[in-house]
Amino acid sequence: MDAIISDEIRTLRDEVRGFLDEHLRPVEPALRTAGPDERRKLVAELRELAAEHGLWGAARPVELGGRGLPWAGWAHVAEVEGSYLEGPAVLGSASLLDLTMLHRHAGPWLRERYLQPLLTGEITPCYGMTEPGVSGSDLLQMRTHARRQGDEWVINGRKWFCKVRGADFMTVFCRTGPAGASNRTAFSMILVPTDAPGFEIVRDLPLLGDTGGHAEIRLHDVRVPANHLLGPEGGGFGMAMERLSLGRLLRALTWVGQAQRAYDLMCARLRSRRTSTDLLGDKQLMQLHVFDSYTEIASARLMLHHAAALLDADDPQVATAVSAAKVVASRMFQHVTDRAIQVYGAEGLSDDTPLSGLFREARTTRIYDGPDEVHIQAVARRLLARPEPAPPRPRADRTVPAGPDTDRTAPSGPGTDRTGPEQSAPVS
């Protein structure tokens, strides 16, 4: 896709790739085995180095110190940045969703208290949406609630699968409306410091064996000032939808980058590993792994770039495009990493390569931000609800006058075929 991106984006993408290859790749083994505290320390050191190279926060709008790229432009960089699991954290994109929501919806006090230190990496955010015991894909079932008492909000409830270890504050999605209020206006978002009295980490939640910082938390009579409300009271549902749409796109772009890395590792293995008779890559079944992975990555990439363009244009079809691309990208990610592990054999199951971590991450993506089944159903419903297109009208130039010696169909042959270059689909 190099032919369709600007020199500015190509240069930034190449700089990001060079920085990550030079500085992040050597410490990847240490990051894989480090505990949460050591991992945060290593990432913080790399953040400082990224800032020295002018790469910290490049995804942000200009007014927040970034490059101000459209999402369709940033998509090319996000894929490269996401090729390393810690890439977004090192380059400042891991907090992009929280920055965006604060920039769009926070009042002056919240912007000074949270947005400014978030921009410099002084504080770390996390998000509290999913709750134990209810369907995580149905926001309207969330039970955590907040009630107003004077100049404070008092919050009670539970959240889980929150990256709370090392976080300084959590944006909590909670019910604030009275009994009988419309579900669409019954929810709000409130910023809660993680050191507030009553904010308790109940337990860590390893994901497929990985202790990556997820946890279950309990909020028991947590009190925060009234000015910690993000956006208007009752505006939480709309902001959650806004956050989800952008978040799904940005995360899925990183999955393409991670799948591309697994693909590159697989191809390198096929080119170098020799059996007793020939190269592993000479075997037809191995070549099928290459073909399937190449086509799946290319398809997911194009769908995501299309969705990014729709998001830039504020197109009403963006939700459908993002959901469809999210499903395709997550399935592709799992398929490609599985094939790469198969090519590596027993070594692929170990932590001697990044593949085990990539495969674990790939499996979680089919549940993150809504499971596949929810997106498939939502997309199908939207597509079936569209008006049925009118049948094509016959073209007058495709027939000739009837006569005793003439055919009733249009002639064919040189000069009469209507599928010339101007009619063909673009080929990338």
Automatic annotation (TrEMBL):
It comes from the Bacteria. Coiled coil: none annotated. Gene3D superfamilies: Acyl-CoA dehydrogenase/oxidase, N-terminal domain, Butyryl-CoA Dehydrogenase, subunit A, domain 2, Butyryl-CoA Dehydrogenase, subunit A, domain 3. Residues 384-428 are annotated as: Disordered. InterPro entries: Acyl-CoA_dehydrogenase, Acyl-CoA_Oxase/DH_mid-dom, Acyl-CoA_Oxase/DH_mid-dom_sf, AcylCo_DH-like_C, AcylCo_DH/oxidase_C, AcylCoA_DH/ox_N, AcylCoA_DH/ox_N_sf, AcylCoA_DH/oxidase_NM_dom_sf. Residues 6-122 form the Acyl-CoA dehydrogenase/oxidase N-terminal domain. Residues 126-222 form the Acyl-CoA oxidase/dehydrogenase middle domain. Its cofactor is FAD. Residues 234-384 form the Acyl-CoA dehydrogenase/oxidase C-terminal domain. Keywords: FAD, Flavoprotein, Oxidoreductase. Belongs to the acyl-CoA dehydrogenase family. This is Acyl-CoA dehydrogenase. It comes from Micromonospora echinofusca. The lineage of its organism: Bacteria, Bacillati, Actinomycetota, Actinomycetes, Micromonosporales.
